Sequence to fold (229 residues):
Amino acid sequence: MNIPNLAGIGMTSQRTRERMITSLMEKGISNWAVLDVMRTTPRHIFLDEALAHRAYEDTALPIGYGQTISQPYVVARMTEAALGRRRPEDGPLARVLEVGTGCGYQTAVIAQLAERVCTVERIQPLLAKARKNLSLLNFRNIRSKHDDGSLGWPEQGPFDAIIAAAAPQHVPAELLQQLADGGRLVIPVGGERGTQQLQLIERQGDHFNTQTLETVHFVPLYIGQVQHT
Ligand code: SAH
Fold:
Protein backbone atom coordinates (compact mmCIF):
# COMPACT_ATOMS: atom_id res chain seq x y z
CA MET A 1 0.00 0.00 0.00
CA ASN A 2 1.11 3.50 -0.67
CA ILE A 3 0.29 6.05 2.01
CA PRO A 4 1.22 9.54 0.91
CA ASN A 5 2.28 11.93 3.59
CA LEU A 6 -0.72 14.20 3.68
CA ALA A 7 -0.04 16.03 6.91
CA GLY A 8 1.06 19.56 6.37
CA ILE A 9 -0.53 20.06 2.97
CA GLY A 10 -2.29 23.42 2.89
CA MET A 11 -2.56 26.19 5.41
CA THR A 12 -5.63 25.12 7.34
CA SER A 13 -5.00 25.21 11.05
CA GLN A 14 -4.55 21.92 12.82
CA ARG A 15 -6.97 23.16 15.48
CA THR A 16 -9.86 23.43 13.01
CA ARG A 17 -9.23 19.88 11.84
CA GLU A 18 -8.95 18.63 15.40
CA ARG A 19 -12.38 20.12 16.15
CA MET A 20 -13.84 18.11 13.26
CA ILE A 21 -12.32 14.92 14.69
CA THR A 22 -13.69 15.70 18.16
CA SER A 23 -17.12 16.22 16.64
CA LEU A 24 -16.90 12.85 14.81
CA MET A 25 -15.99 11.12 18.08
CA GLU A 26 -18.88 12.81 19.88
CA LYS A 27 -21.20 11.48 17.19
CA GLY A 28 -19.98 7.93 17.83
CA ILE A 29 -17.10 7.30 15.41
CA SER A 30 -14.65 5.11 17.30
CA ASN A 31 -12.40 3.46 14.70
CA TRP A 32 -8.94 4.97 15.25
CA ALA A 33 -7.67 4.15 11.79
CA VAL A 34 -10.58 6.10 10.27
CA LEU A 35 -10.15 9.03 12.67
CA ASP A 36 -6.40 9.18 12.03
CA VAL A 37 -6.84 9.22 8.27
CA MET A 38 -9.53 11.91 8.44
CA ARG A 39 -7.36 14.03 10.73
CA THR A 40 -4.64 14.27 8.09
CA THR A 41 -6.63 14.27 4.83
CA PRO A 42 -6.90 17.86 3.56
CA ARG A 43 -10.62 18.21 2.80
CA HIS A 44 -10.21 21.83 1.72
CA ILE A 45 -8.41 20.91 -1.50
CA PHE A 46 -11.57 19.08 -2.67
CA LEU A 47 -13.69 22.23 -2.49
CA ASP A 48 -13.89 25.36 -4.60
CA GLU A 49 -11.90 28.23 -3.15
CA ALA A 50 -15.03 30.11 -2.05
CA LEU A 51 -16.06 27.19 0.20
CA ALA A 52 -12.64 25.99 1.33
CA HIS A 53 -12.87 27.88 4.63
CA ARG A 54 -15.83 25.66 5.58
CA ALA A 55 -14.03 22.41 4.76
CA TYR A 56 -13.69 21.23 8.36
CA GLU A 57 -17.29 21.87 9.36
CA ASP A 58 -19.15 18.60 9.71
CA THR A 59 -21.48 19.32 6.84
CA ALA A 60 -22.13 18.39 3.20
CA LEU A 61 -21.25 21.19 0.75
CA PRO A 62 -21.95 21.77 -2.97
CA ILE A 63 -19.32 20.66 -5.51
CA GLY A 64 -21.20 21.69 -8.66
CA TYR A 65 -23.39 19.74 -11.13
CA GLY A 66 -26.08 19.46 -8.44
CA GLN A 67 -23.87 17.17 -6.32
CA THR A 68 -22.33 17.46 -2.85
CA ILE A 69 -19.21 16.43 -1.02
CA SER A 70 -20.45 14.03 1.68
CA GLN A 71 -20.63 15.16 5.29
CA PRO A 72 -17.46 14.06 7.16
CA TYR A 73 -19.56 12.13 9.71
CA VAL A 74 -21.17 10.14 6.90
CA VAL A 75 -17.80 9.42 5.25
CA ALA A 76 -16.47 8.24 8.61
CA ARG A 77 -19.55 6.12 9.37
CA MET A 78 -19.50 4.42 5.96
CA THR A 79 -15.77 3.81 6.05
CA GLU A 80 -16.02 2.41 9.57
CA ALA A 81 -18.85 0.10 8.47
CA ALA A 82 -16.83 -1.03 5.44
CA LEU A 83 -13.87 -1.92 7.66
CA GLY A 84 -16.09 -3.86 10.09
CA ARG A 85 -14.24 -5.67 12.84
CA ARG A 86 -10.92 -5.20 11.09
CA ARG A 87 -8.11 -3.91 13.24
CA PRO A 88 -4.99 -2.06 12.05
CA GLU A 89 -2.90 -5.23 12.58
CA ASP A 90 -5.15 -7.08 10.08
CA GLY A 91 -3.69 -4.83 7.39
CA PRO A 92 -5.56 -2.83 4.78
CA LEU A 93 -8.57 -4.04 2.80
CA ALA A 94 -7.36 -5.48 -0.50
CA ARG A 95 -9.89 -4.03 -2.95
CA VAL A 96 -12.58 -1.45 -2.48
CA LEU A 97 -15.10 -0.13 -5.00
CA GLU A 98 -16.58 3.33 -4.60
CA VAL A 99 -19.72 4.24 -6.56
CA GLY A 100 -19.96 8.03 -6.99
CA THR A 101 -16.49 9.62 -6.91
CA GLY A 102 -17.84 13.18 -6.66
CA CYS A 103 -14.90 15.43 -5.83
CA GLY A 104 -12.78 12.49 -4.65
CA TYR A 105 -12.68 13.21 -0.91
CA GLN A 106 -14.02 9.87 0.24
CA THR A 107 -11.82 8.17 -2.37
CA ALA A 108 -8.79 9.76 -0.68
CA VAL A 109 -9.92 8.55 2.75
CA ILE A 110 -10.49 4.97 1.58
CA ALA A 111 -7.26 4.91 -0.44
CA GLN A 112 -5.34 5.19 2.82
CA LEU A 113 -7.10 2.14 4.26
CA ALA A 114 -7.03 -0.16 1.22
CA GLU A 115 -4.46 -1.59 -1.16
CA ARG A 116 -6.52 -0.52 -4.15
CA VAL A 117 -9.58 1.67 -4.65
CA CYS A 118 -11.62 1.58 -7.84
CA THR A 119 -14.04 4.47 -8.19
CA VAL A 120 -16.75 5.17 -10.76
CA GLU A 121 -18.44 8.51 -11.51
CA ARG A 122 -21.20 9.18 -14.05
CA ILE A 123 -20.56 12.93 -14.51
CA GLN A 124 -17.44 13.39 -16.65
CA PRO A 125 -16.41 16.92 -15.48
CA LEU A 126 -16.73 15.88 -11.84
CA LEU A 127 -14.50 12.88 -12.45
CA ALA A 128 -11.97 15.18 -14.10
CA LYS A 129 -12.05 17.44 -11.04
CA ALA A 130 -11.62 14.46 -8.71
CA ARG A 131 -8.65 13.16 -10.70
CA LYS A 132 -7.01 16.57 -10.49
CA ASN A 133 -7.62 16.79 -6.72
CA LEU A 134 -6.34 13.27 -6.10
CA SER A 135 -3.24 13.79 -8.22
CA LEU A 136 -2.23 16.61 -5.85
CA LEU A 137 -1.96 13.99 -3.12
CA ASN A 138 0.13 11.56 -5.19
CA PHE A 139 -1.96 8.42 -4.71
CA ARG A 140 -0.81 5.44 -6.71
CA ASN A 141 -3.49 2.97 -5.71
CA ILE A 142 -6.61 4.57 -7.22
CA ARG A 143 -8.26 3.49 -10.49
CA SER A 144 -11.14 5.60 -11.75
CA LYS A 145 -13.53 5.52 -14.67
CA HIS A 146 -16.42 7.45 -16.18
CA ASP A 147 -19.38 5.06 -16.22
CA ASP A 148 -22.60 4.00 -14.55
CA GLY A 149 -21.36 2.77 -11.19
CA SER A 150 -24.53 0.83 -10.47
CA LEU A 151 -22.99 -1.80 -12.74
CA GLY A 152 -19.93 -1.99 -10.48
CA TRP A 153 -16.59 -2.71 -12.13
CA PRO A 154 -16.57 -6.48 -12.70
CA GLU A 155 -13.07 -6.60 -14.24
CA GLN A 156 -11.59 -5.21 -11.01
CA GLY A 157 -13.63 -7.30 -8.55
CA PRO A 158 -14.42 -9.12 -6.38
CA PHE A 159 -14.29 -6.41 -3.73
CA ASP A 160 -13.77 -6.67 0.03
CA ALA A 161 -15.89 -3.59 0.40
CA ILE A 162 -18.17 -1.51 -1.81
CA ILE A 163 -19.23 1.99 -0.75
CA ALA A 164 -22.00 3.80 -2.61
CA ALA A 165 -22.15 7.58 -2.18
CA ALA A 166 -25.55 7.97 -3.86
CA ALA A 167 -28.88 6.31 -3.09
CA PRO A 168 -30.69 3.87 -5.43
CA GLN A 169 -34.32 2.78 -4.85
CA HIS A 170 -33.13 -0.81 -4.62
CA VAL A 171 -29.71 -2.38 -4.16
CA PRO A 172 -28.26 -3.13 -7.64
CA ALA A 173 -27.74 -6.89 -8.08
CA GLU A 174 -24.40 -6.25 -9.83
CA LEU A 175 -22.94 -4.76 -6.66
CA LEU A 176 -23.98 -7.79 -4.60
CA GLN A 177 -22.47 -10.12 -7.21
CA GLN A 178 -19.14 -8.28 -7.09
CA LEU A 179 -18.73 -8.64 -3.32
CA ALA A 180 -16.05 -11.11 -2.23
CA ASP A 181 -17.03 -13.76 0.31
CA GLY A 182 -17.07 -11.91 3.63
CA GLY A 183 -17.25 -8.61 1.74
CA ARG A 184 -19.34 -5.67 2.92
CA LEU A 185 -21.52 -3.31 0.89
CA VAL A 186 -22.39 0.03 2.52
CA ILE A 187 -25.18 1.76 0.62
CA PRO A 188 -27.96 4.29 1.22
CA VAL A 189 -31.26 2.91 -0.08
CA GLY A 190 -34.56 4.65 -0.80
CA GLY A 191 -35.90 7.64 -2.63
CA GLU A 192 -37.38 10.57 -0.78
CA ARG A 193 -35.46 12.67 1.69
CA GLY A 194 -35.94 11.41 5.20
CA THR A 195 -36.73 7.88 4.10
CA GLN A 196 -33.30 6.71 2.95
CA GLN A 197 -31.67 4.10 5.14
CA LEU A 198 -27.96 3.41 5.25
CA GLN A 199 -27.60 -0.35 4.86
CA LEU A 200 -24.69 -2.64 5.58
CA ILE A 201 -24.90 -5.86 3.59
CA GLU A 202 -22.41 -8.60 4.39
CA ARG A 203 -21.85 -11.54 2.05
CA GLN A 204 -21.41 -15.00 3.54
CA GLY A 205 -21.18 -17.44 0.60
CA ASP A 206 -24.51 -17.05 -1.15
CA HIS A 207 -26.18 -15.36 1.82
CA PHE A 208 -26.47 -11.62 2.19
CA ASN A 209 -27.11 -10.32 5.70
CA THR A 210 -28.59 -6.84 5.79
CA GLN A 211 -28.36 -4.48 8.70
CA THR A 212 -29.90 -0.99 8.74
CA LEU A 213 -27.54 1.54 10.29
CA GLU A 214 -29.39 4.89 10.26
CA THR A 215 -31.50 7.37 8.31
CA VAL A 216 -29.44 9.43 5.83
CA HIS A 217 -29.79 12.04 3.05
CA PHE A 218 -27.93 11.30 -0.16
CA VAL A 219 -28.22 12.47 -3.74
CA PRO A 220 -29.95 9.86 -5.95
CA LEU A 221 -28.01 7.08 -7.66
CA TYR A 222 -28.97 7.32 -11.32
CA ILE A 223 -29.12 4.01 -13.08
CA GLY A 224 -28.28 3.62 -16.75
CA GLN A 225 -27.47 7.29 -17.47
CA VAL A 226 -23.99 8.59 -18.02
CA GLN A 227 -23.48 12.34 -18.37
CA HIS A 228 -20.65 13.78 -20.46
CA THR A 229 -20.87 17.50 -19.81
N1 SAH B 1 -17.97 10.45 -2.21
C1 SAH B 1 -18.23 11.74 -2.77
C2 SAH B 1 -19.72 12.03 -2.73
C3 SAH B 1 -20.21 12.50 -4.02
S1 SAH B 1 -21.96 12.72 -4.16
C4 SAH B 1 -17.43 12.81 -2.07
O1 SAH B 1 -16.82 12.55 -1.04
O2 SAH B 1 -17.39 13.91 -2.60
C5 SAH B 1 -22.43 11.29 -5.06
C6 SAH B 1 -21.89 11.14 -6.46
O3 SAH B 1 -22.50 10.00 -7.02
C7 SAH B 1 -22.19 12.31 -7.40
O4 SAH B 1 -20.99 12.82 -7.89
C8 SAH B 1 -23.03 11.65 -8.51
O5 SAH B 1 -22.77 12.17 -9.80
C9 SAH B 1 -22.59 10.21 -8.42
N2 SAH B 1 -23.50 9.23 -9.02
C10 SAH B 1 -24.86 9.18 -8.98
N3 SAH B 1 -25.31 8.11 -9.65
C11 SAH B 1 -24.20 7.45 -10.13
C12 SAH B 1 -24.00 6.27 -10.91
N4 SAH B 1 -25.01 5.52 -11.34
N5 SAH B 1 -22.74 5.91 -11.21
C13 SAH B 1 -21.67 6.65 -10.79
N6 SAH B 1 -21.80 7.76 -10.04
C14 SAH B 1 -23.04 8.18 -9.71
About this structure: The helical segments are 14-26, 32-40, 72-83, 105-111, 124-136, 173-177. The beta strands are 61-64, 67-69, 93-99, 114-121, 142-146, 159-164, 179-189, 196-204, 207-216. The chain has six helices and nine strands.
